[in-house]
Design goal:
Blueprint lengths: L1 E6 L4 H13 L3 E7 L9 E3 L16 E4 L6 H6 L1 H21 L3 E7 L9 E2 L10 H15 L4 E6 L2 E2 L4 H11 L4 E4 L3 E2 L2 E2 H12 L5 E5 L5 E2 H12 L6 E4 L14 E2 L2 H6 L8 H10 L3
Parallel strand pairs: 1-2, 1-4, 2-3, 4-5, 5-7, 6-15, 7-12, 8-11, 9-14
Antiparallel strand pairs: 10-13
Helix pairs in contact: 1-6, 3-4, 5-7, 7-9
Bound molecules: NADP nicotinamide-adenine-dinucleotide phosphate.
């Protein structure tokens, strides 16, 4: 029987992986961790990354998906010590525990380990994070790479899910006749969340240490994305108002956001990598 552990079982990626693996695999056991005591049961363990004595269950897991952490870029800036403790110190403490169990670590990471000056980044390109969030991810990645772990680092760009608040709110606002504002000087390379989950799962089955990228083929500004979404919804594009990031408290606005996904496409035999517009189209058309 294959045994999985999902650290951060309540996260978007953790919850989605739990459902996905249960759908496609038989004869498995999936444990999760949570910091919500009301959710504890025989397969759901308490874990708070800010606890000095953080630990995982002592079981012979085949694979551990590491999905917990402070994921707000702003929060990592505002609560630097807490972010360091959760996203680095205790994260690597758990990496050691996972290694002792001889389990494989799957570590979702981010395009923000790069500075975004290049049009696209290969997995082996030099990291140069410009945010605390990206810096802590880059350090945790380095720790995995320099130690004797069995690991896959999977860097993702922006994943779109039905509870992805910005795009979700835009669609609802546009449908109800309201105006919205969107940055015309900030880019993103969106990927459909469930597609990324499938790739993360498939990459977790590739038993070869390394870094993998998941990204759209190109990038789009939030303003162009909102106009395109208005078009898809059949509403007037003039209801999308452009705005500049310098008028808002944005932590960092990378020039570019695309990750080169060639290695992932090859390893998983993916024939077509979606563009940002193809991704947005699918997101809007499937939005309930
Ligand atoms: N989603 C994306 O677009 C994206 C893109 C690139 C990389 N990633 C990376 O993928 C991983 C998962 O992302 P996600 O979007 O699925 O995350 P998410 O939905 O934002 O969830 C983060 C999870 O971390 C948990 N958490 C926060 N502080 C914690 C603490 N002190 N102790 C224990 N758990 C704590 C949260 O618990 P509560 O539920 O209790 O708050 C939550 O379940 C993250 O490492 C993220 O950096 C995600």
């Amino acid at each position: 029987m294959k045994k999985y552990l999902i650290i951060g079982g309540d996260s978007f990626i953790g919850q989605s992986l739990f459902r996905y693996i249960n759908q496609i695999e038989n004869n498995i056991s999936i444990d999760k961790t949570t910091r919500r005591s009301e959710l504890l049961d025989k397969h759901t363990y308490f874990l708070n990354l800010s606890d000095p004595e953080v630990s995982i269950p002592d079981k012979d897991y085949d694979t551990v998906f590491f999905c917990a952490g402070i994921t707000s870029i702003q929060e990592c800036e505002d609560k630097r010590e807490l972010a360091e403790l959760c996203n680095y110190t205790n994260t690597i403490k758990l990496f050691h525990d996972i290694k002792k169990l001889q389990s494989r670590i799957i570590f979702p990471s981010t395009s923000l380990v790069f500075d975004g000056h290049q049009k696209s980044y290969n997995p082996t390109d030099q990291v140069n994070p410009q945010t605390r969030y990206g810096y802590l991810k880059a350090r945790a990645e380095k720790m995995l790479q320099e130690s004797e772990y069995s690991y896959s680092i999977i860097r993702c760009t922006k994943l779109l899910s039905s509870n992805q608040s910005v795009l979700h709110n835009w669609i609802n606002a546009l449908r109800s006749g309201s105006k919205i504002t969107a940055f015309d000087d900030m880019l993103f390379s969106p990927v459909i969340g469930m597609e990324a989950i499938k790739y993360i799962y498939q990459l977790s089955q590739v038993k070869q240490n390394g870094i993998w990228h998941i990204s759209a083929k190109d990038e789009i500004s939030y303003y162009d994305a909102a106009c395109y979404m208005a078009e898809l919804l059949g509403v007037d594009k003039n209801r999308v108002i452009p705005e500049k990031t310098h008028n808002k408290p944005v932590v960092y606005n990378p020039e570019h956001t695309v990750l080169d996904m060639s290695d992932t496409l090859k390893a998983l035999n993916i024939q077509h990598q979606k563009t940002a517009r193809e991704t947005l189209r699918e997101f809007v058309l499937n939005f309930k």
